[in-house]
Amino acid sequence: MDNIITSKDNPTIKLYQKLSSSKKERLQYGLFVLEGLRIVEDALKEDSGITQLILTEKAAERWGEELLQADLRDTRTIVISNELGNRIASTESTQGVFAICRIPLQRTAASIVRENGKYLVLFGLQDPGNVGMMIRTADALGIDGVIMSGSCDLYSPKVIRSTMGSVFRMAIAVENDADALFEQLHGKGAVTSAAVIDKDAVPVTECDFTGTQAVFIGNEGNGLPSDIAQRCTRRVIIPMHGNINSLNAAMAAGILMWELKR
Questions:
Q1: Measured between alpha carbons, how far is 88 from 6 in angstroms, rounded to an integer?
Q2: How far apart are the C-alpha atoms of 55 and 52, rounded to whole Å?
Q3: Domains, in order of start, for the chain
Q4: Which residues contact 94 (CB under 8 A, 6 or more apart)?
Q5: In whole angstroms, what is the distance from residue 178 CA to residue 164 CA?
């Protein structure tokens, strides 16, 4: 195979590593990275702005023909050595399929909220794996959109990997200003529900989720700030039995989204 890149100083490889490790670099370039056959295929299928496709020798031999059948008119494809692939990989057993992708224009909460839609608001979530799993679950359950506020970087490799491609299919907005967030949600007629651990909150099983709805999930360790919970239309709780009084944030979000759609 001709033109196999072996140098770690290749400009594309250096850019990939910068984007993989730094939110600042991702914001500066307006780019993020993908790793893995499935998520790269999803990005190609959804026409998600892949600018560079990077394949190891082994991956090019195994999947190159399949991947190159996609519309790659705006995509540059390079082949790198297997050793270089191991060097830039963030997974232990890499498939050798990587890509650099354009970050789409940031959407506001108001731009994705529609009448009778059901939305999940991730407020202050910091665990990338949890955030990715919540986005994936929202996609699976037919939630209409996810709004991130004060949470970790949507385009970090771990969040992207944990979404399993759902990041390309879900309507996702970012609004870090709490005042603007509530103004947009309530301006669209959304009923806002704060998920809390409080015996005075309404059991989620007794809530009416008809109409436009947005459920707030808070930080993994601290939950929602009390002022944010108070600004919501109502506070809701997942009824629990035994000695357990809290759930993993992603698990709680899954239950709440199920109730939203039920």
A1: 12
A2: 10
A3: 4-102 (3.30.1330.30), 109-261 (3.40.1280.10)
A4: 35, 56, 85, 86
A5: 29
Helix (H/G/I), strand (E/B), else coil: 213: strand
The gap from C-alpha 115 to its chain's centroid, in whole angstroms, comes to 23
Record the pTM: 0.91
Q: Which phi and psi (to 5°) does residue 137 adopt?
A: -65, -40
Quick check: helix, strand or coil at residue 84?
helix
Look up residue 15 and give its amino acid. Answer: L
CA dist., res. 204 & res. 219, Å (int): 19
**Closest to 146 (Cα-Cα) out of 164, 171, 117, 183:** 171
The Cα-based distances of 184 to 59, 98, 192, 244 in angstroms read 46, 37, 11, 35
Q: How far apart are alpha carbons 131 and 253 in whole angstroms?
A: 10
- The whole-number mean pLDDT for each consecutive block of 10 residues of the chain, a chain of 262 residues, reads 85 97 96 95 88 95 82 85 95 93 94 97 95 97 97 96 93 96 97 91 92 95 93 92 72 94 86
> 9 burial class (0-12, 13-18, 19+ CB within 10 angstroms)?
exposed
The values of phi and psi at residue 81, to 5°, are -70, 155
CB of 164 closer than 8 Å to CB of 38 = yes
Give how far Cα 230 sits from Cα of 61, 120, 226, 233, 255, Å. Answer: 57, 17, 6, 8, 22
Residue 215, classed as helix, strand or coil, is strand
Query: For residue 186, what pLDDT is reported?
Result: 96
The predicted pLDDT at position 45 comes to: 87
